[in-house]
Each structure stands twice: as structure tokens, then as C-alpha cells.
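User: I'm putting together a teaching handout on how multi-component assemblies are represented. Below are the sequence lines for each component of a complex, exactly as they appear in our records. Could you produce the 3D structure of the whole assembly as C-alpha cells, so the students can see both representations side by side? Please keep the chain order the same as the input.
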Amino acid sequence: MKKLLNIYKATLVFGILAFLMGCSAGGNDPGIEYAPQMYHSIPYEPLTQITKEGIPDGMISSRYYIPNSLPYNDYNGKKPMNELLPVPGTVSRQSFSDHSIINRPDSNKELLLYNLHKDSIDLAARVLKNPLPDTKDIVKDGQHLYLGFCAPCHGETGDGKGKVGQVYKGVPNYSQGRYATLSEGHIFHTITHGKGRMWPHKSQLNPEERWKIVRYVQELQKGK
Amino acid sequence: MKISTYVKSFRILLLVFILSSYHSFAQDENTSGSDGLSVEAAVVSKGEQLFSGNCTQCHAVHEQVVGPKLAGVYERQSVEWLISFIKYPQKVIESGDEYAVALYEKYKQYMPNHDFLSDEEIKSILSYVKAKTIEGPPPAENVASNDSGTTGGGQQSGFNTNLLLTIIGLLIALLIIVMIAMILMISVLSKFIRKQGDLSEEDQEYLNQKFKFSTLLRSQTFVTVVALVFITFAAKATVDGLFSIGVQQGYAPDQPIKFSHKLHAGFYEIDCKYCHTSVEKSKNANIPSANICMNCHNTIKTTSPEIQKIYTALENDEPIQWVRVHNLPDLSYFNHSQHVKVAGLECETCHGEITEMEVVQQHSLLTMGWCIDCHRKTEVNVKNNEYYSRLLEAHQGNDPMVVEDIGGLECSKCHY
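Assistant: Of course. Below is the structure of the complete assembly, with chains in the same order as your input.
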């Protein structure tokens, strides 16, 4: 009898240990959550993971199950997702920009609201003027953005020898040939809608950021 | 001297000059007549400059880039044809020229007009191409090293681990050899002593004693030691287990597309914000939509099955179902732009060595203790920040201003 009790105790200890070890995360297992109701937002947060697969019945639920979310977000019959599409009929606002910038006295509102068609690159090259002043701060901001968004292909000095550019091919050198003479409007339009092998970057950069990059690219056009 | 002698001697001088300085191209001096392209150094260097300024992004002499490789192009078509094509490619193709149409069929895109180049300039470019063609392609080893440079990127880290394993293996082998040698020595020695025979009883007993495993197992010391070790480990496992509830450190889920941060952010050095565009502008660092992938993958690795998944998603107009790795509880507020833009933190501070991760895993604890620990230690970044630098001036004490001093531990900063 005593022996049996010992075995029982040992099993209990090991059982608890195994159970607790199962709490930690790793690989595909997110681990156990203590209070999923407090961890997951009932309203949609950006990139909230929603899936109806594997909803457990127990008290401790998997992280993806959002208790009580059904009354608010009826995703019945819809695909589980973490990125949501815009509501059907949404009008795109590619000219959207930060209002604090638009309302600044030194900025040209109309140019921050950019609506030229992608085929109008010649018009853009002739007409567009940078609404942002040519100051050190703007160039520095432009450099910061350039290094993040352009340098992978165009290289840190604009020589077209970025690590991605070498594989992607067809990246020009800013400071040579006709590229050194391209106007600011041309550069802005190219960032917005792409040109040749370059694809549009308007979804990654708002007009103000593009104009900042233009200021820095113009520095690179001069060569060093 | 007469003027004619001057001219004569000048001509001879010029000839000598040309012959001596362009010795390497001497062999085609004869052929230069047929296509009318000179390979004089002055012309070639002018051509080289124009070529690197206007052509290199799509063409190379000895390799196909975006457009065809140019080696020997002056033999394929006449110089007049080339000039008209370089100036107005689309016009030549649309005029129905057979060769031009074949080019368009093959490369599926129009070369842009180069009408800003004069005939002379185009000729000098062609001269450069000719000079390079005669020179021949660069040595093969250069090409090979370039190839390995662009396709590799996953080899280096394996080396150290392998070295370490080899060393450990060698040490273990050495240990085993030493043990075998010692056992042999003991047996030989004890045999030798037994042969001698003149041992006291006590010594004999010592020599003949056998190792009894069961006695050891039952001895109180052994049981106590084992019990203590077991209890220690059990307690540690229990505490660890309890603390890991709700902590997802190490969570590394399989993603629908086997995207490698090691390749993209590590080897190709693409900035984090190229894809996670909103990290400096918003509370969230967004997951990129498929159009950002397409900025490169419209041409790169288009046949890979993993890349095909992006195309499928785009065709069906459906977002890719990435699995969320980091999930801060809803009860706490966190803002990426405040930490990345204002504080100037590197992404790696919290997300770990992303550039080394094939599959992203949660690097940090993301517990409240972890947040607070950092807020207690980290000095406020006052650089280029008028507000904070004035604050620093106003509150100048002996200690540096850490996040805690500006309310980084207030409950309601994160919980409201």
C-alpha cells in the first residue's frame, strides 16, 4: 500500500512537471496564456491574428482564439487573416500627407497632393518643383529615408551598386551621363510611379517623404 | 625648313605615337576600316565614359544583363543601323525591321530613346564596345567569385560550430583512450602484485574486493545526493514553467511563405523599414503587403515555388496569412515610432539578431519586468530633440536622465 502511494506521488510530481514544461513557447507552439481575454483585443487591432481553427473548450485557450469577439467581429464564413483588406469601394488617397506638414507656411499644398498620371513623366519633369526648402535638415531626413528605401538597389552613394541592385540589374549611376541632369520633378515622379525596371514606391513613401528623398538624390547627382 | 616638312614630320610623329600607345589593339588596325570604328584610346575612353553613364544599367559587353550582351554587336549590324536603333529603338522596331523585331520578341521591352547622343558619341560608345570585345571577357575566376558572393550568404556561421564539435569530439576520444590505458595498467599491475604473493591479509582483501553496485545504490549518502539533485531540478523546472506561462519567448512559427530574414536583411542588407514601412510613423510596424515583395520579385527568382505563392496571393487579391510572432498583451500600450524614431533604438535591441534568423522567433521576454528594466537603464536620447534637450537642461542633476525620470515607470503610460 505504501509502495503504491509512493508510485502515485512520483507520477503526480512528474505529471505536474511535464504540464508546466508544456507552458513555454517554442517552434510552432505559442505556449499557454494565463488570461487570453486580457491579451487579445476585442476590437480589431492592426495585424490581429484571427483564426477559427482549433478553438479549445477549456479554460486555458490557444492564443489565437479571441473569446467574446464574435459579437463584435463576425468573421463567420470568412477567411482567417491578420491583414485586412479595405472595405469594398474604398477610394485610395495616394495624395494623403501629414497635415502638420501641409499646413506649414513654407510648403506648397498642391504639390503634396499629388495626382499626376503615371504616364505624365515628361510633364512632371518640366513642371514639378520641390515644395520643401533646401535645408540641411531636409537633406538629412532625405538621406535617412534614402538609405532605407533606395540604397539597397541604388547604393549608398547613388552609384547603382547596392547589394540588391547588383542582382536585380539595370540600376543607373546618379552622377553620370544624363542621370546627373534629371530634374527634381522627374525624380519625384519616378519614385512615385516607378520607371523602367523600378517599381512604384508610392505605397511605402508619402509625397512629403518622396520630396525629402529628392533633395538628397540631387546631392548625389552632383557626385563626390 | 618648309611648312611641308613640318607637316610631314608631324604626321610621322603622330603615326609613331598612335602605334606605340595602342600597341594592344594593333591586330585590328586593319579591320577598323570595314565598320568604320576606330579604336584610338581617346575615342575609346570617351566611349567608356558615355557607356558607364548611359548604358551599364542595362547592358554589359560580355554578359547579358537586361538587354543583350554587346560583344561583337558592330558585326551583327551596320553602324548606321545601330545608330538609328540606339536613338529611336521603338521606331525601328515598329518600322518592321526583322532584326529589331526579333530583339523585341526576345527581350519583351523597348529600350528607351537615346536621341540626346550625337552620332559621334554613339560611334565612340561602339568603339569602346569593340575595344572591349577584342580584349576578351574578364578571367573566369572573377566571375566565379562574383557568383559565389551573390548566391551564398548562409555558409559562414556553420564553420565555428563545426570547429567546436570537432574539438569536443577529439577531447572525448582522448579521455576514452586515457581511461582504457589506465584500466590496462591497473589490471597489469594487480596481476603483477598477485604473482609476487607476499601480501598481508589486509592488502589481499583490498586487492580482491569487488565493486558492488547495489551497496552503492542503497547507501544513505547516495540516496540523499540523488534526492537533493532531483528536488533542485524539479523546483527549478517548476518555477521556470510557472514563469513561462504567458511568455512567448522562443516562439518561432512556420510561416506560409518561407521568407528568410537572414537572406533579405542579413545578406542583402535591406533596411527593416523598406518592408516594415510604418515603423517610424505608427504604433505598429506593419507586415508588408505583397506589392512590396513585387518591387524585386517581379524579376528575381520568379520560378521559385515560394515566390509563386506571392503571385497567387496577388492574383486572388488575398493577403498572405503570415503568422503573428510578437504579441504584446492588449492590456499594455506600446508604440514603435516612439522607440524607433524618438529614442533611436535599433530594431535588434528588442527583436534580436534578425539578420541571422532563417525563421523569425521571439527574442525578448516582452514581460513587464523586461520593459521596466530597460526603462530604468536607458538614457533618454536628447540628440536632435529640442524638447528633451531642454528638459535635460532644466533638470540637470548629477545622474544622467533615464527613461524612468521622465515617467517611464508611470502605470498609466502603458496601462489605461
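A couple of points students might notice: Chain A is about 40% helix and 0% strand. Chain A has two domains: 29-85, 99-221.
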